[in-house]
Amino acid sequence: MVDLSPVYSEIIILLFAVGLPAVYYLTKSEKALSIVSLVGIIAAMIPLLIFYIDGSQPVVFAGGLLRLDAFAVAFKLVFLAVALYVTIASIRYVKGERHLAEYYSLILLATLGMMVVASSLDLITLFVGLELASLSSYALVGFRKADKRGIEAATKYLIIGALSSAISLYGISLIYGITGSTVFADIGTAIATASGMDPIILLAIGLLIAGFGFKVAIVPFHMWAPDVYEGAPTTITSLLASSSKKMGFVALFKIFLIGLIAIKADWDVVVAVIAVLTMTIGNLVAISQTNIKRMLAYSSIAQAGYILIVLPIGTEYALAGGIFHIITHAFMKGGAFIIVAALSTVALGESLADYKGLGKRSPFLAFSMGVLLLSLAGIPPLSGFASKFWLFSSAVDAAIAPEQSWVLWLAVFGVINSAISLYYYVRVIKYMYVESGPEEPIRVPNSMILAIAITVVATIVIGLFPSPILELCREAARAFFSGM
Amino acid sequence: MMLENVPILSLLILIPLIGSILVFALGNTRKAAASIALVFSAIPLALSIFLLLDFHIGAIGYQFIEKYTWIESYGIAYHLGVDGISVPMVFLTALLCFLAILFSWDVEHRTKEYMGLMLVLEVGVLGVFTALDYFLFYVFWEVVLIPMYFLIAIWGGPRRAYASIKFFIYTHVASLAMLITIMALYFEAKPILGYATFSIVDIASVSGNFNYLFQVGAFAALFFAFGVKMPVVPFHTWLPDAHVEAPTAGSVLLAGLLLKMGSYGIIRIALPTLPDGANALMPLMLAIAILSILYGSLVCLAQRDLKKMVAFSSISHMGIVLLGISTGSQLGIAAAVLQMFAHGLITAVLFMMCGVVQHKVGTREIPLLGGLAPKMPLAATFMTIGFLASLGLPGMIGFVAEFSVFIATFDAYAWILMLPIASVAITAGYYLWALQRTMFGPLTEKIDTSHAHDVNWYEAVPLAILAILIVFFGMFPGVVMDYITPSANIISAILGVG
């Protein structure tokens, strides 16, 4: 009998995802769907928490295709946490829509795909997980068939997604052709021991950057993101920004920091330039946005730029900082989108001007939005400050070594960009608290308040007491570099 | 009275925090909000007086230390402590916050948020003046920005939106320069210390050995970060906007406390941590100090708005602080701290008076005002005291502070003193001229003074307390200097200046 314990969470999610249509068939109750979904997500978290708290040794299984270690656990927990609050927020957001069983089921399947990516040890497994998550998201983006914007977004997302998959796949095939393997560790060894530099490998690197660059929306492959984020149902936007994109980073980490680490000198400057461009363009364009979803989308692009600096720095410390920022970003950005979703249930628009006077109309939503935005801007003592602090400090740390001293600029550009971003984040706060707007109070559904509260509490608590999460990130980074 | 076992510094920070939570929770009427705020700012004031009394003057090092691990793996601690330089600042903070809240007794627009934010501001500033861990210091430093942003943005003047964002972004950029430097200090100290720590004290104990160029670069970055906050020319442009638009109490705290955070940062962190860098950049600091002093006072001559004049005079007076620092000497540093303390008291009176004039007469335009003294004699008295104190009339604390700075400057740079000291005449000029044109002389007919009545009790009490302290400390500057001098001596010894 094969020991299935390392994949308990995946199995749980799969069973619940497949079982949801049956639940709906039996109960005909929307409420049952969401509750069963939530039970599934929480149940899937338990084996992971047990694994981490027990301090268990990494386990390789499925014939060396998957590995459960602290790195995988950290990401799986993030993906599940996002699925959790997105599901809670969805209870009212999609109320009365058709095909709700499929909606919740697709969220679980997308999460399952991401979890596979987090564990993957080779390019094929990674690709399979990535595609499972992507295909589920395409459907979710176009979930509201009557919504023209949603359909347009879904079409765009599907085409760009398919294109990027094809490009990555081509890059993967070149890597396989050169190294004779799809296993990250073997690729790394093959490249490290290869005598001389194969020009094909540069092509492969370019294709991989382009392919996965689309997935994580880094400049210049970011154009689709604002349109898709704007058009998608806002709960799904939250999912895309908070977890789907982070899955792309897992892929980038594994490919570049394990497979291609030996030839880091050939790609680090290019990736560093892309990182700086991504954060700068994302922030500058965000300033001119008048739609809050688009503004948050561009801010998300900028945040991807911050996380991307992990690659050229390439240290364990940097990876820990990157994971930490991914975790905090999942709550900050996800929460902000859920607030937008919550306000749309009371027919408040998505234009920034619609947020005028929100502080009076709904103190809770305005306060939560304020906290999340200030955290995104990196103002202490919120979690976004702590995570940016570690992320940027890793560049300063690496720059102490003379041959790496140029990476200091990544920290400098990072903090300059943080300052730029403050402008548009604070502008929303200004609309909410300083400008006067309509006066009538806003009441949003309790389930959404709960989802928002989860993200806000996480943002504040992680900011004040970062130690446990930080420890998890360090464990994850250590596991990432040690086992491969 | 022994308070050794009481975490008095934590209480100082915690009580306004609790107060702000209570105000937000319970302050539904104007009176409730203001009363809670007043009580919860009075307690820290009382505690700060206990702190003054219980402080062992002349003892080496930090006192009332509290240290708890916060983020263990990176050596971050909740680490508080005070020395002779922080203690007067803590007292000044508690005093000004209490008086500013009292002065704001009649704020009717969104009183709850106003009072709550004032208390949050107090938490941040007290934290800055007591933190001994870089991370904690930075957290408090940034916490200050948020309430001040809202105070300007919601209760400010007509151009408040512009001024508040400018203030926030300008000073945030400066903070980020500090943040990068903090990271650099942390990584540079780690291998020498053999352990990771963000402790300001621990890092300072080894940072003297850092590479010379590193020290110069890091000092320059810190000087920029703190200089913007002070502010020194050419990084001052956020200040007049922020001051003119801020509500009165906001201006009081901005000028009285937030500017001090800048000079405090230089004295507490930049000088003792990077002595080689400090010595290398002394001439630059001297030049910037003189530039700020002269520029600030000359620009004052041209101001039509009373409040803008006071704002620019702050640049000049903070320049005097920097002048003292730039000597690096025992007297210079001690005098700089005394000038910080003096400016905190005096500028509070000045901004309160600007608020009073605006409130009673409806304008602060100097050419429109005139002859207010007979209508509001008490206000005229306070304004005269404030202006005279600010221009450095002997017998008041401003004189002692400026005079000490000038002595130290002469000691260090001899005849260069000719330049900054010229500002004393200019300062006397603009203050006396402004006083003459606003309070004395014939009543102009350009303004409606029919509703102008004298200061209210909640305005008179803070003004009177400040006036008394200005004169008291002017007569007995030794009371404050005894606290400051031993700590200033330590810093000057680290710098290697006699």
Description:
The complex is a heterodimer of chains A (484) and B (498). Chain A has 484 residues and is an all-alpha fold. Chain A is built from 20 helices and two strands. Chain A has a two-stranded antiparallel sheet. In chain A, a hairpin with a 4-residue loop joins β1 (59-61) and β2. In chain A, α1 packs antiparallel against α4, α11 (264-287) packs parallel to α18 and α16 runs antiparallel to α18. The mean pLDDT of chain A is 92. Helix content of chain B is 74%, strand content 3%. Chain B has 18 helices and two strands. In chain B, strands 1-2 form a two-stranded antiparallel sheet. The model of chain B has no long low-confidence stretch (mean pLDDT 92).
Key phrases:
heterodimer; A: 484 residues; mainly alpha; 20 helices; B: 498 residues; two-stranded antiparallel sheet; 3% strand
Following the backbone from N to C, one meets helices and strands of chain A in this order, namely HHEEHHHHHHHHHHHHHHHHHH
* C-alpha geometry of chain B: globular
| Biggest sheet architecture of chain B | 2 strands, antiparallel
Enumerate how many helices of chain B there are, as a single number. 18
Quaternary state of this entry equals heterodimer
Beta-strand content of chain B = under 5%
Strand order of the largest sheet of chain B: 1-2
**Discrete helix count of chain A:** 20
Runs of chain B with pLDDT <50, length 5+? none
Number of strands of chain B: 2
Q: What percentage of residues of chain B falls in helices of 4 or more residues? A: over 70%
Q: What is the rounded Rg of chain A?
A: 21 Å
C-alpha termini separation of chain B: 36 Å
Based on CA inertia axes, which overall geometry of chain A fits? globular
Strand content of chain A: under 5%
Q: Please give the alpha-carbon distance between the first and last residues of chain A.
A: 27 Å
Overall helicity of chain A: over 70%
